Amino acid sequence: MIVGEEDQLTTRDDAEAMLRAVPDGRLTVVERAGHLSAVEQPEAFNAAVASFISSELGEAARPHG
Question: What residue ranges do the domains of the chain occupy?
Answer without folding.
Answer: 2-61
